[in-house]
Amino acid sequence: MAYILLGSRLGTQVLRRDWAQSDDTQVQGAGRYFALPPLTAEWRRLVADLDARPVLGPDAQQILSDAEAIFDLFARSALLELARMGVTAPD
Length: 91
Prior knowledge:
mainly alpha, 75% helix, 0% strand, flat, Haem_Oase-like_multi-hlx, Heme oxygenase
C-alpha cells in the first residue's frame, strides 16, 4: 500500500508542472490536490526498506499481491467512471 500511495505522490509532482501552466479552469480547480507535499523522504525510506528485504519469499509475494490488487482496484474504478461518462474504454 505504501508503495502505491507514496509513488503516486511522486507522480503527482510530475503532473504538477503541467497543472501549474494550464489555463483550463477545471484543471486549475485541482490546486488543493497538487499542493499536497510530495513525501519524498518517506519514499526514500520505503525504497531503502524494500531494498533490504529478500526479493523472493512470502513477504515479497505479499508485497506484489497487494500492489497488484491496488492497481486492479484503480483500473476497475477507471472503467466504471468511463462507463458512467458514456465513454468506451480501449482494449
